[in-house]
Amino acid sequence: MNISNNMSSIQSNQTMMNASASNIVNNKADLSKEMPNQIVAQHATTANVNTIKAQDEMLGSMLDIKA
């Protein structure tokens, strides 16, 4: 997986979280359905951020080795 894939996944998760939050605020949604969606989106975002961090660390290590 590359960074651009992770970034688009983070953006789609953010869009989903925003829509879910809007539904909650406007009383258009059932909390028992929206809260699990929020939690899933949060964990997916965390996983993508951790992947980007790992890729960054590997790139840094490769540059250190090359230098």
Low-confidence stretches: none
Number of strands: 0
Structural class by secondary-structure content = mainly alpha
The separation of the N and C termini measures 26 Å
- The coarse overall form would be rod-shaped
Beta strand %: under 5%
Compressed to H and E, one letter per element, the order equals: HH
Q: What is the CA-atom radius of gyration, in angstroms?
A: 17 Å
Largest sheet: none
Total count of helical runs of at least 4 residues: 2
Helix content: over 70%
The averaged pLDDT comes out at 90
Describe the structure.
This protein is mainly α and 67 residues long. The protein has a domain at 32-67. Helix content is 88%, strand content 0%. The protein has 2 helices and no strands. α1 (3-25) runs antiparallel to α2. The model has no long low-confidence stretch (mean pLDDT 90).
Spell out the key features of this protein.
67 residues; mainly alpha; 0% strand; single chain; rod-shaped; 88% helix
Brief characterization of the structure:
By secondary structure, the chain is mainly alpha-helical. The protein has helices at residues 3-25, 31-66. It has a domain at 32-67.
Write the layout of secondary structure elements.
Elements (H helix, E strand, L loop, with lengths): L2 H23 L5 H36 L1
Helix pairs in contact: 1-2
